[in-house]
Every structure is written in structure tokens, then in C-alpha cells.
């Protein structure tokens, strides 16, 4: 059986983006979404500086991670809209990871793949 390709989009960004991301993803009609509170840091190791000492111990800041699983052909459009929503041009605007996903199963119906979304 040939299944259509699925991807998981993970967006990690500042907590202040919670409401706007939720409404954007809802408008884009994703089949569902998961918001997780996480701790993280990126290239600046949790500081607000562009140049960080290599010996500086990374500091983890509270962030949100938003996960949503969609058909792979929808990824570009969704990622583009999320980028537009998050962009300020400053450090810490967030990061988007796209992973290919093997399968999804809706427990109630036993459906697999895109039918289960
Ligand atoms: N390489 C990575 N691996 C895992 N998680 C990461 C990675 N880079 C960033 N993250 C996660 O994404 C969050 C947001 O990262 P952030 O926007 O600061 O990325 P950045 O690469 O430092 O870009 P910028 O220089 O614009 O700040 C981090 O707090 C962390 O949770
Ligand atoms: Mg950063």
C-alpha cells in the first residue's frame, strides 16, 4: 500500500508567540497540534549577545514547542506562514524543524496515514 508522505513540523519559539501561532495554525486547518513547554537555547547559549564566550555554560530559557503533523506537500506553505509570523530579525526569533514521519494511527478508527490526520 502506498501511503502519502507525512511530516512533522516542530516550531520552537518564545512563549509570547503562543496565541498567534495557535490561531495561525488553526486558520491553516492543520488536523491537530501539540504545544509543549520546554527549556532551550540556541546559538547564543541563552544570552542576548551575538558573540558568546566559548567557555560560557549554556543557559536554558523557557520556550514553547509546537508540533503538528501534516501531509508533506503542505509543509512549505505552513513553514512560510510560520516564518512570517515569528520573524523580527532579532536573535531568538525561533527555529523550525521539519521531520519526515513514518505513520500516524487514529486509535478510535484504526485509520493510518493521512486518513488518520
Ligand atoms: N541546534 C539545535 N538543536 C536543538 N534545539 C535547538 C537548536 N537550535 C535551537 N534550538 C531550539 O530552538 C529554540 C530557539 O532557537 P533560536 O531562535 O535562539 O535559534 P538560533 O539558532 O540561536 O538563532 P538566532 O541566532 O536567530 O537566535 C532554542 O531555545 C532551542 O530550544
Ligand atoms: Mg538564539
From TrEMBL:
Annotated Gene Ontology cellular component terms: cytosol
SUPFAM superfamilies in UniProt: GlnB-like (SSF54913)
UniProt GO molecular function: ATP binding; enzyme regulator activity
Key words, A-Z: Phosphoprotein
Gene Ontology annotations of biological process type: regulation of nitrogen utilization
InterPro entries: N-reg_PII, N-reg_PII-like_a/b, N-reg_PII/ATP_PRibTrfase_C, N-reg_PII_CS
Residues annotated with O-UMP-tyrosine modification: 56
Pfam families: P-II
Signal peptide stretch: none
Family to which the UniProt record says this protein belongs: Belongs to the P(II) protein family.
The protein, known as: P-II family nitrogen regulator
Species in which this protein is naturally found: Sharpea porci
